[in-house]
Amino acid sequence: MSRHNHDTSAWPLKPSQIIALRRKLNKTQVEFARLLSADPSTVGRWESGRSQPRRIYIRLITKILQEHS
Description:
single chain, mainly alpha, 434 Repressor (Amino-terminal Domain)
């Protein structure tokens, strides 16, 4: 998928799932980014659907999702 394609339907993690997890953890974007060792603006782009997390972040987010399901 190109970086400029904003169709999130095929993404392994949808922006709404990332937002829901972050809220479930009661974290701000900055705190959630820190938890993942990511930049807060990157988390904002994931949540708005402007970019997709790289595989390493998908694995981390999926692991956290599984732990908090």
